[in-house]
Amino acid sequence: MRPGKAVTMMDVAREAGVSRAAVSKVIRDAYGVSPDMRKRVESAIERLGYRPSVAARAIRGSSFTIGFELHEIENPALSRILRGAAEGIEGTGYRLVIAPGDPEGQHAIDALVDLRVDGLVAIAPRATPAWLENLASRIPLVLVSRHDPSVNYDTVAGGDDEGARLVMRHLFDLGHRSIAHLTRSEEATAQEGGALAVRLGAYLDEMARNGRESHIQVLRTLSTSDAYHATVGLLDSADAPTAIFASHDDLAFEVLRAVRERGLDASDLSVVGYDNVRFASHPGLSLTTVDQSGDDLGRRAVRLLLERINGRTAAKHEETELRLVVRGSTAPPRR
Question: What does pTM read for this prediction?
Answer without folding.
Answer: 0.79
